[in-house]
Design goal:
4 copies of one chain form a homotetramer. Chain A is an alpha/beta fold. The first copy, chain A, has 2 domains: 191 residues, Rossmann fold; 136 residues, Phosphofructokinase domain (Rossmann fold), CATH 3.40.50. Helices cover 36% and strands 18% of the residues of chain A.
């Protein structure tokens, strides 16, 4: 029996731990394991490595993925060089399916986010055998109670808040920390509560400058002339407008400059007169050794995916429901994302401890 | 309105975070908060402090408890000095109930483990108003899916395994790590999986030396002349016998010497001839700043307990069920502990990745 | 006897540890200790607290300063409100000297950077008794071999590099990390070596884009399609020009946007075509619990300053020379900063391990 | 040109970083690098690997040594199996020298402690070309101001003290932490100061129980009913007697039981009546990722050793003197260990902050 593994989408602590666990479970039953490089590109271009015991040694606590990932690996829209040396985007999914046959893969474990799993779903519809493993540090998949990588990202953001705290206090400043979360505020909410933020701003809850200023002034009146604001990168501006990061003029480059963090810092400083500093945590949240919890969840997901793959399942994704890892249909899994609701218990608990959501 | 708070039993990361969150939720509704020192002793001897905003500043990330705890605070069996200067153990529960009245406490939030909550239950039966908050780093309460402090303990144990790994590998040694867990193996199981242990020994699964030796030799045959064993302190000996730690002869003292960790190290070294080193992690697991997850859980428990207390409930304990914090009857809560079952999904996943339980 | 303590300038891990150690050494000889709030402002406005044993409890491992700091505390140019409610900058140094007399201070321990110590020097010239303790996370004082806070900042930056590494590798990206160091590149150099950076850019060494691109391409040719660049914030642009961070247009605010990190990221991405991501570490470097080394150095500085203060010295600063803490004249101390020279042994060692300085 | 590398003696964070740096510096000049397994055994038995760019990838932050180490690798007293299957200890140094010739090694970089370097010295006397790199987490070599691994060990011990602190405080207990240091107290001294210990016991300073008890009682009288004691493993008993760890009776095994830590805990508990808990940190101190400082020092040592090796030197050891890495004669290096003197500045500073050395 032969099973392939690939990883797609953005980096996430725990990817290697999934690969390791799946491979160990497959080895135990004598299954050959192929690792494709850079997501679906590895299958399309038959760029793969044999995953053996040596390849997975030491992977449990290592961040990143030994298989690499690639944002441009969509087989339905794949960049192909024309004879004239130009790039054309083509549907190469048939080629991919053929390669799967040629390589005699009985099943494929596809570890990735929204994009990667949606593609998996389409490939399954075309006859491929695929088991999905969900991956998002944002923890915003309705289909699973938790995703690996999230706890590590929350830990990194919380450590940053812990560090900013002492400086805020010593300098009587407002400190703004921008964290990841393009569509959902889970990282900001969890690390805001864990790191003792005073204001938590997330995409799901509209905010007003007045409300933030009021919170900062309330604290000043209580003898606390410093405040900590955490904001998810996808939080809209004060009028609900989407914030596009500024770019260095004329450069046409994708390097990010000021986002919502800087905007909020600027507005708060102008409104309160309190010195304000902004930190954008950036890719630090995606890297590093996974936390123990993430290693465990990644291990469980890897084993469960391997077992599904070996028993001939397809079109399923592994998910955590309560204390159990269970299979759910891939189709369903890629349909709904979870967002922070106003009556979420942690939001309410946060409010009870005095955290303002700027509303 | 007036609510008291106390902490009892062994130390646990997150106690201060519970106190802080409960106090914040109580302050927000104008409730006065009294903090009793050293568990029930503080009520019996009217030794308390006023908890105000200043008292809880900076508590979120601080280990331990500002209220102190005490193993000898049982009001039904309390040490009282007789006029002759001797210690007699008396039932002073009536005195405690009277003090509660005298101090005009509307409710009491009692944060503690088995012992502390059982006493709470008995006091409730005698008419006291008490809300319980469960506390155990062992995570072995049937009534709640998770307890705060557990994730921090698992993190500490996993970091220790990470460190032992490199030495084991460099020196071709067997490293034994003894962690907490008197009756249940949750800490050993979770950190064993997270830290890549080769053998996990827990109270719930009988083990044999042959089986451990086989695992170590299998690894040697695969070119891995080193192994990591993690063992819960409450794991019985090879014949199922309870291991009592040795003491320095004649000293009559309670200082612990060799426990199950040393016994296993000794047996393994004799049986395999491989140099073996034993580390007993000890109280390091109970201390330190709580992990983000534990701070969040502690905050949620604190807020929920305060809300129950303010709405006049009694005889309830807060618990995590799935994603929600809910009240459960104190009585039920103190009845059952949870232990690792042979068909626990994490046990099975661990086996699939090659972990041996020595059975 | 009576000694005052104040902290000035930017935040720095270890300030509290200096205060604690100095106070402990002073208490041991029965000296009263006054803590002035927000640097010299505390003396000018007689805003102080009594530092007693309780005040310093738990300070050793706590970041920041319980005394607060203030960038606008220069007694020679101090903001004073006129009767008309306007702000005028005045020389209030005479008032400060008078307050010192009135408060019967025998000596003053002034903990701060360049600015704070230069003022101390001028005040000494006017008759004040002051002992200086140098503080800069940049470690760029010629007069002392090391300053506290530097090791913590290097540790924070190194941890960030460790995290960026896995993502760079998984995604075949260039990761740019901008760290502190306005005039000197010590933090970038040390953490660049410790974190395995491929390119280190510092104010002292002019760089060219070609040279950076060459390094990145060399690595690609060796099968390493990812690179890590660390850059000190004060590094000039490719033409040697000083980089002023962009601001949100028209806002007139001091919120920082793109600095040298973003510029380099942009240039490198355009020149190599490799996806590049930039992280600006910012104030996270100034916060958090000091590293063990910094706690020790801060403790030694605090004790040495207290001893100098008690023995009636003035106009001296404590400094580390080799293994010993020694006094040096304040005057000399504030004159020269140290910068990274081309023949610095660590620069040469870095080059030997393949690190490029872009030159 | 061809240079060999080996590592000997106990584990120490930074060994891999030395190997990596030396190899990189050697590669840059086209030198072939051989890595011998398990110290001198690798040369004696011609058990070696080619160290190439791939072999050293990712080594900078990895604890342990990829080359392995071995306590039984002395070529002057090497275990050889006789034809009858018995073990005889023989002088195989001639064989080793011959193998060096046969393998056409121009030089050998020997990374190790006392034992390893003494052997190197003897081999040099017999004509071998060897450059030494000192390795000891104890930091007790007179010839170098600091050794790599020490800062990591101090950090691990300090983190343990930080964790024990909160428990000690919450439970009104005495916590004893036993750390490494068989002949010198550097780890106990540095981490004791960094971790805020109340009592520091080291081999160099005789202690009395009365003095320790006095310190604990002084603290109780100041309202601090808890204390932290750190003790180096080599500290003699109260009468100056050497403490041999107890063993499990009749087992004849080398597993360690009670050492000086337990003895002190037992004595203190009996004398004060305060509950006391003992933690023996053990091998955790030797493992884990090296601290940034240790990575830097290891890198500098590795580069310096490679340069000495390439320029044909022999019988030299690299050492840190002030800010510079310099060569010192191997002979001298192995002669003197450094111990903590009573007038060491850090000892005096520690006393000034109230730390008792039990004397």
């Amino acid at each position: 029996m032969r099973v392939g593994i690939l990883t797609g989408g953005g980096d996430c602590p725990g990817l290697n731990a999934v690969i390791r666990a799946a491979a160990k479970a497959l080895f135990a039953r004598g299954v050959d394991v192929l690792g494709f490089r850079d997501g679906y590109r590895g299958i399309i271009e038959k760029d793969w490595i044999t995953i053996d015991k040596k390849a997975i040694s030491g992977l449990l606590h290592r961040g990143g993925t030994i298989l690499g990932t690639n944002n441009r690996d969509n087989p339905f829209n794949f960049p192909v060089e024309t004879p004239e040396g130009e790039i054309e985007y083509c549907d190469v999914s048939e080629q991919l399916l053929e390669n799967i046959k040629e390589l005699q893969l009985d099943n494929l474990i596809s570890i990735g986010g929204d994009g990667t799993l949606s593609i998996a779903n389409e490939l399954v519809a075309k006859g491929a055998h695929i088991i999905g493993v969900p991956k998002t540090i944002d923890n915003d998949l309705e289909a699973t109670d938790q995703t690996f990588g999230f706890d590590t990202a929350v830990t990194t953001a919380t450590e940053a808040l812990d560090k900013l705290h002492t400086t805020a206090e010593s300098h009587h400043r407002v400190m703004v920390l921008e964290v990841m979360g393009r569509y959902s505020g889970w990282i900001a909410l969890w690390s805001g509560v864990a790191g003792g933020a005073d204001v938590v701003l997330i995409p799901e809850i509209p905010w007003s400058l007045d409300s933030i200023v009021e919170k900062i002034e309330d604290r000043q009146n209580e003898g606390k002339p410093f405040s900590i604001i955490i904001v998810a990168e996808g939080t809209p501006g004060p009028g609900g407008e989407h914030i596009i990061r500024d770019r260095i003029e004329g450069s046409g480059d994708p390097i990010r400059l000021g986002g919502i963090g800087q905007l909020i810092g600027s507005l708060v400083e102008q409104a309160t007169g309190v010195e304000t500093r902004v930190t954008v945590l950036g890719h630090i949240q995606r890297g590093g050794s996974p936390s123990p919890l993430d290693r465990i969840l990644a291990t469980r997901f890897g084993v469960a995916a391997a077992e599904l793959a070996m028993s001939g399942h397809s079109g399923q994704m592994v998910a955590l429901k309560g204390q159990e890892v269970v299979p759910v249909p891939l189709e369903e899994a890629t349909r709904e994302t979870s967002s922070v609701s106003l009556d979420n218990q942690l939001v309410l608990a946060a409010r009870s401890t005095g955290i303002s959501f700027g509303d």
